[in-house]
Amino acid sequence: MKTFVILLPILWALFALQGATSHEDHPLSRIAVHKAIAALDARAYIKATPSVLGSNGVNQEWITLEYGRSNPSNDDWVGVFSPGNFSAATCDPENNMVTPPLLCTAPIKYQFANRSSPNYKRTRKGSLKLQLINQRSDFSFALFSGGLRNPKLVAVSNTVAFANPNVPLYPRLAQGKTWNEMTVTWTSGYDINEAEPFVEWAPQGGQKTRSPAGTLTFDRSSLCGAPARTVGWRDPGFIHTSFLKELWPNLVYTYKLGHKLFNGTYIWSQVYKFKSSPYPGQNSLQRVVIFGDMGKEEADGSNVYNQYQPGSLNTTKQIIEDLKNIDIVFHIGDIVYANGYLSQWDQFTSQVEPITSRVPYMIASGNHERDWPDSGSFYGKKDSGGECGVLAQTMFYFPAENRDKFWYSTDYGMFRFCIADTEHDWREGTEQYKFLEHCFASVDRQKQPWLIFLAHRVLGYSSGDFYADDGSFGEPMGRESLQKLWQKYKVDIAIYGHVHNYERTCPIYQNICTMNEKNSYKGTLNGTIHVVAGGGGAGLVKFTSLQTKWSIFKDYDYGFVKMTAFDHSNLLFEYKKSRDGKVYDSFNISRDYRDILACTVDSCPSMTLAS
Fold this sequence. Notes:
The strands form 6 sheets. Strands 11, 12, 13, 14, 15, 16, 17 and 18 form an 8-stranded antiparallel sheet that branches. Strands 22, 23, 24, 25, 26, 27, 29 and 30 form an 8-stranded mixed sheet that branches. This protein has a 7-stranded mixed sheet with strand order 21-20-19-31-32-33-28, with no helix packed on it. α3 packs parallel to α4. A hairpin with a 6-residue loop joins β8 and β9. The chain is built from 10 helices and 33 strands. The chain folds into 2 domains: 118 residues, Immunoglobulin-like; 317 residues, Metallo-dependent phosphatases (Purple Acid Phosphatase, chain A, domain 2), CATH 3.60.21. The N terminus is likely disordered. It is of the alpha+beta class. 15% of the residues lie in helices and 30% in strands. Its EC number is 3.1.3.2. It comes from Capsicum annuum. One of its GO terms (molecular function) is acid phosphatase activity. It is found in: Secreted.
């Protein structure tokens, strides 16, 4: 009887998925769940072992599923559900007009029954190894026949759970609003009425101190539409952020996350470490990695039926392997591609935790984080799946004045980064345009010579086929609005995501190359170099067959870019492929401060008192 209580609401959740799905490219949207029916088979079974995970303190673990049925098919599949109990009593309605049976959550991932058991149809049994992460709740597994297009539920497993589902998890470092502040954001299952969150930290080997953390969460009413408000909903837990202030420059610090329960017990994370930021203008080796559109990918091969983000794990792996040579990372939009399936955010923060726990991980807003009709976004599409920016703004910290206005600046040594929010209006006269001009104008180029513009959508130049088909070779109105600022304030490099490939232009202004050199730039650039670095992991975008004079290098592959500032006069730019971490394109800039001061076209007043 207990099994039936679980099964019926699962079917209603699956039924609701069809109407709630807002992005057909998401793997979970490939299931024709509106056709799901109950077909319980007493001879079918599915069993998960072990039943208790994380006993040794780990927060991700592999489990084994064993299953079978009397009449198997090669299109049988297994869905992973969390929470494991799908009874209607645990589900909240979308609104007060909804009556039972209520909508629960979608499966968090799935896999075909014959994936690791090629003889499944003949032997009538199979097994799978799946990786689970601690997501603050238990798990159950369901065996379906009928394929993705006509699913029939035949068996449900026992539940499995982590020993302590509430522990602090997945720390995410980010620069604060000043150069000597580091923020630590993490997720836990403890509300502030259960435990006090804090970070214990110290210079490596030094005296420890504790900094309190603020706590945020949200509910369905904070989101804008389906599936985020309906079957994609999953309780996000509690997101905590602590501010570590007055750090010494370039110093290694250790830290660990803590929760003090009201009975006096302490719950701790493992110990992590990071290196604090250099003083603005400090002359030291500084290394920056930038990419967009990475998303998440399951290490066990699940949830990638349409291979939407096949390069994600490779990009993550290469950055982890080179982390000792990286100081700060920028992920410029289209972060998770959750598209309203909230469980994916936990899975992403787990995937990047070896990076985010060690170096600042700065994000920008993309269409898959923000866009939703009538929500204030510049574009009226449904790319966020109803998230409308809430997940990105809550799960990660970034030093903006207003979290919904996702534009901000941050300094790292000799670099000034001005980060735009392409999902809000950037055109001349807007609040964002004024912010960007101030960001460019306020930097002291003698101390911070490397001025970098970052944005998700291509506000500059791209040979991506969909931009070329529109005849714009970039976001319509992008260059027209911003190129005056780039030129006036001598922005060195502009880097974008959105187009899932790599491309680099010459230094350019008003569609004209300002230098003929391609790899070694000396002296005044006279224009801005535009780079598309959207090959972080999501499905690749083809280039147009049209040839442009301004495009120097194109690559239809997954990769990321790395900038190394050796001093105030020398910068190395590299494009690396995610498949092997090797450099496939590069250039360097060598110049003096006087070269930045030199007048170029439209960068100085036409008349001065001296003239």
